[in-house]
What does this fold into?
Amino acid sequence: MKITRKDFLRLSGLSFLAAGAAGAARAIAGRGSSAEGRQAAAPVRWGMVVNLEKCRKEEGCDACIGACNTAHNIPHFSDPRHEVKWIWTEPFGTVFPFSQSGYAERSDVHLPVPLMCNHCADPPCVHVCPTQATWKRDDGIVMMDWHRCIGCRYCMAACPYGSRSFNWLDPRPAIASINPDFPTRSKGVVEKCNFCEERLATGISPACVEACPEKALVFGNLADPDSEPRQLLRTRFAIQREPELGTGPSVYYLV
Amino acid sequence: MFMFERAITGGRRYWTWVFCLLGVIAVGFFSYMHQLNVGLGVTGMGRDVSWGLYIAQFTFFVGVAASAVMVVLPYYLHDYKQFGRITILGEFLAIAAVIMCILFIFVDLGQPARVFNIVLYPTPWSLMFWDMISLGGYLLLNIVISLVMLTAEREEIPAPGWIRPVILLSIPWAVSIHTVTAFLYSGLPGRSFWLTAILAPRFLASAFASGPALLILFCLALRRLAGFDAGEQAIRKLAVIMTYAMTINVFFILVEAFTVLYSRIPADTEHLEYLFLGLDGNYHLVPWMWLSILFALGALTLLLVPAWRTSPVLLLVACVLVFFSLWLDKGLGMIVGGFVPSPLGSVVRYTPTLPEWSIVAGIWALGALLITMFYKIMLSVRREVGEEALAVSH
It folds into this structure.
């Protein structure tokens, strides 16, 4: 069979039209179903507000970190290169560089700020993952599938917050005491804070939130205008980490 | 099969070389077994510098693979006949380099047994997915092309007509592999060192200099060791191509440096500061980066003067300088420099460990072995055809 140029153009034109029509049909159908879905369940977007003033009340307190480490079988490695961290602290000046005038009477630059995964609205780690081992749930939690992760660490290069840890060595011997209710990980996979989705599923708040003696960590549904974090954000000035990157962090800080 | 039998006949020198390479490969293999057993913690990488030598080597060798287009394009698009004898050298180099790239990615994986998850869960919004498509496709294209062309040469028949569109396709495909590789880095929001539109053009320019440099070195080596003459014209043309590419590459680096240094945005300047001046008391990459600059300038001086460029000895020196300058720039500074300082501002020293270097050396040796075998096959086919032609003419 000989295809002339005219035939070829005609054929390719038709295929483009067909593809376009299929796409349009899908879009129309999709719009209908998502509208129904929205009516069925109230939207949820989990988020956290960190009240730094309260957080500093008790100097040297690391109750939130300890609670998280125990709950999630976080290994302890002394070599800083191999550290696995879900929630940890860094000095204010490191977390929010350039946000102090330098002339203030009281400098916050060296005061600790708790850090964790920001569970971004538009997470760069999810974009780059080649196996969809990390993905964003409808309630905003950025999840990890430790059984699908191939350990390429592209997500670690993509995360602008340094929130992801890789298991450079077998983590199991480095866990002080294993919590049987939560899985341990194997070497060669990436992990990070999961907003305690395993606790949320049973209706209790995250371990760090529960452990804080000053109630400095306020957790709730950012999509609900009456939720506790939303009430705080309505009246207080809050900042996010590097919001200019467009990632939309779900963790806010009251300074 | 695939004329492989031609690669296992050779003299004492050939076998000594092959066994040396096999030795290095074995050491690399055992180091990899150690890494597989203990974890990637045996390398110098860590939570801040989470990609190191492996990914840097991958990046460098994607460039070498793409550079085959610098002999294929003039020959097939411009009918530049002088490259007729060496296009296959370029294609073989591409095959070996892509195989090395795939291995460098593989040894970098924390869970290599799950590598096929990339195929099982295809993710078109991840650049890693497109890197797999482009590298795999490029490997396939070059295997098909070199096999068909070499078979035609052996049978002394013209190559089938369908191969020409395949060859033409390999030209934009070569550009695509290095573009996609640059996009792996240049699309990340928190890594300002890579977040530059000139990264892909810069990768291509440096690739089109380092690849031809390697090819010229191979041609000179083949002339000395195997009596294979690539042709003076071909080598000179390759040198001109390398000169242009290296000039453009240095220009791109200066453009990048201007933008970063004149705008003086700390997040951008501190990466260059770390690489070229040292940051927070960390100077370990500084001498290497300046050596890279020095080599680049030295090479350009030799290449830009026609009398020096055409001198065989000076050309050889220039090729070595180009290759090492770009290896330091891309195979060392480009990746590590992107991670230091980290998004949280920490300056962490990355020192590759002995197992890491052994694995890298093993993959290099495997690439060298592949090149040796491929070129051996080509030489044996050419010699046979040449002898037959001689017999017929007598």
Q: What stands out?
A: The domain at 10-381 of chain B is CATH 1.20.1630.10 (Formate dehydrogenase/DMSO reductase fold). Chain B touches chain A at residues 38-41, 45-48, 50-51, 105, 108-112, 114-115, 117-118, 120-121, 123, 125-129, 132, 184-185, 188-191, 338-339, 342-345, 348 (CB under 8 Å). Chain B has one domain: 10-381.
